[in-house]
Amino acid sequence: VARRMGDRKAVAAAINNLGLLLLRGSDLEGALRRFEESIALEREVGNRAGVVASLTNIAEVQSRLGRDAEAVRTYEEAIRICREIGLKYGLGICLNNLANIQAKEARLAEALETYGQSLALRREMGDRIGVATTLRNTAIVRHLLGDFGGAAGSLERALDLARSIGQPRTVAAVLDAGGNLARLIGDFAAAE
After folding, report:
1. Calpha distance 72→44 (Å, rounded)
2. With 60 as the cut, is the pLDDT of residue 37 above it?
3. Which whole-number Å values give the CA distances from 82 to 122, 134, 169, in the listed order?
């Protein structure tokens, strides 16, 4: 419909959404092709927020494919655009995802700092699901740094927030992270 009407911005969004469906179905290469097609259209029509969405999705696929250096560059481009256009919501997401890669690469102090930037933006924007997600991620890094009390506090705040907004997937993710961390420190009763 969008193509027939000549709405290229809507076409780009639809292609991006197709990429998300492919990503959820684990067709990473198919998703990447759709996101690259979407970003080309977003750039043509000058939709910089759409470019950020596509870049974020491209970086997610790159990371899942083990191409973390590419993903970092892609997130950095998205972060630059977010800052230029004042897209705080997108910036919070990109910083969180960049910190995930930093944590995966064992750059834990850097990841903790980047999560902190994301957390501040997500709080400012009122993104409670994002805050809960970033708190969960922060807990994992704090645990890896040996800050078990800080990890427990972050998980507790994340769980309280996820429960207060009735977000079962986020509650499950926080509980899963808490159980994994408890097992790692040998608290098997808490892990269950």
Report:
1. 24
2. yes
3. 14, 18, 27
